[in-house]
Inverse folding.
């Protein structure tokens, strides 16, 4: 029996070339949007007459530094996230042009989206991730510096709340929605988990956290971490039969990281509670991540079971 969430792909046309063209269109618009918004901002920085703001040379970026220095984190966060409307537009156009189906078909086979389920995923993972970071600070206090300043933190918070849902929803709709359903419809459940997760991992290997690693163990562990998170989000999407939990987990992971810990090697430095000079990843990262994901699965699927939807709700969106 075809999985109900994957079966949503049957609402539209599913030739392999449609997914290929849809993926290329989506990524093209995302890259173009990134280039446009970042390019305009770099042009502004180069001509603003402020000696404190500058675009760093390629050598510094390749070593794991940020592309732009002297700019408030709140501004950088907004600039980097301005590419996601282009990403979302690409997904919508791909579905409309090549598949003839609606964006909502990437979310759930049920008649209604369960916002309660999104919040369950968010808070359980938020608490686990907070505990992980506080444990790291407690075990190695010399590796961290108190970075908290009330005014920048409070200014950054509403921007984080506003832009994070756009960012994570777009990524989830593409990786655990469009690609997962397309792969699953043609090749089955395990291909739906593995291949989009590999693409997710590869797209995140350009992050400064990876470039800053001096040992192969660090690069390898971060790559495995990205794949684990992506595969886990795909697995809980199929197990829960909707994208809701993945949306909550992804939002919690991003928000708690930006709020609690930052580094010069972060994708976007933030006014977080703590800062660290080095992101020294190792294979312990893999073990701890597996532990948190196991605990999350137990809590969400054993303690917070969602009520089974009626047959009518399953068929209403098919």
């Amino acid at each position: 029996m075809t999985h109900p969430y994957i079966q949503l792909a049957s609402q539209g046309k599913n030739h392999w070339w449609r997914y290929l063209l849809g993926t290329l269109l989506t990524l093209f618009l995302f890259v173009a949007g990134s280039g446009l918004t970042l390019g305009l901002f770099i042009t502004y920085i180069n001509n603003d007459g402020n000696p404190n703001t500058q675009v760093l040379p390629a050598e510094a970026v390749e070593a794991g530094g940020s592309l732009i220095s002297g700019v408030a984190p709140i501004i950088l966060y907004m600039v980097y996230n301005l590419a996601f409307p282009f990403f979302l537009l690409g997904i919508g156009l791909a579905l409309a042009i090549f598949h003839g189906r609606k964006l909502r078909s990437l979310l759930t086979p049920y008649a209604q989206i369960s916002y309660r389920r999104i919040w369950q995923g968010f808070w359980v993972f938020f608490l686990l991730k907070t505990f992980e970071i506080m444990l790291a600070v407690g075990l190695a206090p010399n590796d961290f510096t108190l970075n908290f300043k009330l005014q920048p933190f409070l200014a950054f918070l509403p921007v984080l709340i506003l832009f994070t849902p756009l960012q994570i929803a777009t990524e989830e709709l593409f990786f655990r929605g469009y690609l997962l359903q397309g792969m699953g419809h043609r090749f089955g459940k395990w291909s739906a988990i593995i291949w989009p997760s590999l693409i997710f991992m590869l797209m995140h290997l350009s992050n400064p956290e990876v470039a800053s690693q001096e040992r192969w163990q660090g690069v390898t562990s971060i790559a495995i971490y990205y794949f684990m998170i992506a595969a886990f989000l795909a697995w809980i999407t199929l197990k829960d039969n909707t994208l809701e939990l993945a949306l909550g987990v992804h939002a919690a992971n991003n928000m708690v990281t930006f709020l609690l810990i930052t580094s010069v090697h972060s994708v976007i430095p933030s006014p977080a509670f703590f800062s660290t000079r080095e992101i020294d990843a190792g294979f312990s990262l893999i073990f701890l991540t597996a532990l948190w994901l196991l605990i999350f699965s137990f809590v969400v699927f054993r303690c917070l079971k969602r009520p089974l939807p009626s047959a009518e709700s399953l068929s209403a969106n098919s």
Q: What stands out?
A: The longest strand covers residues 261-263. The radius of gyration is 20 Å. The chain is about 70% helix and 5% strand. Residues 4-316 form one domain.
